Amino acid sequence: MEPKSRGKRSFNNFLINTLLIVFGLVMVLSGLVLQLGYHRGGPGVHQIGVHEVQHQPMRYEQARGFDTSKIACGFNYPTWSAIHKFAIVFFSLLMIYHFCAHWKWYKGVIAKHLIRKNIQVITLSVLFLLVALTGFIPWFIDLSGNSVIVQILFIEIHDKLALLLIVFLILHIVKRLNGLLLFMKN
User: Contact 17/91 with Cβ under 8 angstroms?
Assistant: First the structure.
């Protein structure tokens, strides 16, 4: 590989990784605000069933008893939700690029049976996919008008897995911080 193309590739990786960190932080912080500022203390799923039996359409926020006008850290629920969704979409697109850029590495790890040696990155990758799926599925449930109970179930699983994902993301970033700082010096 020519030095110019290697430099361009390094810059692209640096840019993507930096954007992943920025959108990851926005995603995590907005998710934590939504989780801590609004998810606490809502009614349980068993109270929602009565409304669904009566065929009264109910949104997720109503089912959980959220005060969507409540202000948390300067914004209301719809604004935090929009920020979170915006960050999720961009983070997910960047992750797709990141996975594709590192696809050879994933294939090599699997082909050479090095999964145990790379368990942290493999776990992070699987966790990301699970968090993404359990986060996107409720959007489709909401758009299709299906059961709010199922939507809540996916969101609750998403919230718990996301907390675990945060830990693995921090470990992943810390492990690669030296390379990032080295690139910034050059």
Answer: no
